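Morning run. Coffee first, then this:
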Amino acid sequence: MEPWRSPAMKVVLPTVIAALLPALAPAQEVGRVGVDWVGNDIIVEALPDPEVEGVTCHVAYFERSFIDRLSQGNWFEDPSNSSIACRQTGPIELGDIDTGPEGEEIFSERQSIIFKSLRVTRIFDEENQVLIYLVHANEVTEGSAKMSISTVPLWNARTAQPAPAQ
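And here it is:
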């Protein structure tokens, strides 16, 4: 028997994969607007920042219909076009955020079967005390210049305090 088909690997492999995947924020669909007679839609999702309490982003993107996929080809891919707006929706409390220049991915959703995903990355502008949210496509073979940003100023934001040791 091949080692990857053993009963132990059926338990170990999914556990390892789950541990390696980043803990990304869950998005909730809050709107769906039909844009034509073939069933193409614009989807709007609410995305709370998992490390910054009090900030919610709304991401809009295009979802192709089955009829559009049949007539246009390119069956397994949605366009990279997207938009984002982030706002303070409560008292802001900063958690343990990445402050490096590349930021931290807080959301990812597939836009094709393998090669493309829609991502939201949070970048901290420390000098101006602003959180920048960048929505963009991530592609394996060629990058996309389609992007959008939204900013949230951190006026009177609190830093999360670690729980007291017991």
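The chain has one domain: 23-158. Good start to the day.
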